[in-house]
Amino acid sequence: MITRAVEAVLRNRLANYPAVALDGPRQSGKTTLARSLNGLYFDIEQQADQTRLDLKWSEIVKDRQLVVLDEAQQCPEIFPRLRGAIDNARDRTGRFLLLGSVSPALKMHVSESLAGRLALVELTPFLLAELSDIKLDDLWLHGGYPEGGAPHPKRFPKWQLDYLSLLAQRDLPTWGLPAKPQVTDRLLRMIAAVHGRLWNASQIGQALGLSHTTVNNYVDYLEGAFLVRRLLPYSGNLKKRLVRSPRLYWRDTGLLHAMLRVQDYHDLLGQPWVGFSWEGFVIEQILGTLQNLDCQIDPCFFRTSDGYEIDLMFRAAGKRWAIEIKLAAEASPDDLARLNKAADMVAADMRILVTQSPESTVSANQGVCNLPDFLQILKESE
Question: How far apart are CA 234 and CA 299, in angstroms?
Answer without folding.
Answer: 9
